[in-house]
Amino acid sequence: MPLDLACIILGFEQVRLLQDWNLKLDGLDLEAIPGALWEKGSKVKELILSRNSITSLPPEISLLSSLRTLKLDCNALTHLPAEVGSLSELQVLDLASNSLEAVPLELGTCCMLKVCLGAAAAACHTLPAVRKCNMLG
């Protein structure tokens, strides 16, 4: 997908398309994930939302069924929705530098999850699917 089309779909010019549906939306001061993303969600493999002002994820996060990497570090997250557990392809979840105290138990159903980063990493240790958790943030 050409960069121009990605910008039109998501509605702003700062979107940087790295590879096929690997979206880099970091440092844009976003307060929410652009709604247009959900329409093409099943094609997104990597979503980088670092260094924004996102306070919560909507249940529609479950529409990102091919997502392998989700970077949410340096945001204002206070909780994650249970729907994050439906991301069956998720391998890397970066939650560093947020205000999370726990992660939903449903995250334990992400059998591909290998790395959970951030202050909530201690909670990831209790999830059987997580093979490696690093305490960062």
Shape: globular
CATH fold annotation: Leucine-rich repeat, LRR (right-handed beta-alpha superhelix)
Strand order of the largest sheet: 1-2-3-4-5-6-7
Number of strands: 7
CATH architecture group name:
Alpha-Beta Horseshoe
Domain tally: 1
Mean pLDDT over the residues: 77
Report on the structure:
Helix content is 9%, strand content 16%. The protein has 137 residues and is mainly beta. It has a single domain, classed as Leucine-rich repeat, LRR (right-handed beta-alpha superhelix). The radius of gyration is 14 Å and the shape is globular. A seven-stranded mixed sheet has the order 1-2-3-4-5-6-7. β6, α2 (121-124) and β7 form a beta-alpha-beta unit. It has helices at residues 3-10, 121-124, and strands at 16-19, 22-24, 46-48, 69-71, 92-94, 115-117, 132-134. The chain is built from two helices and seven strands.
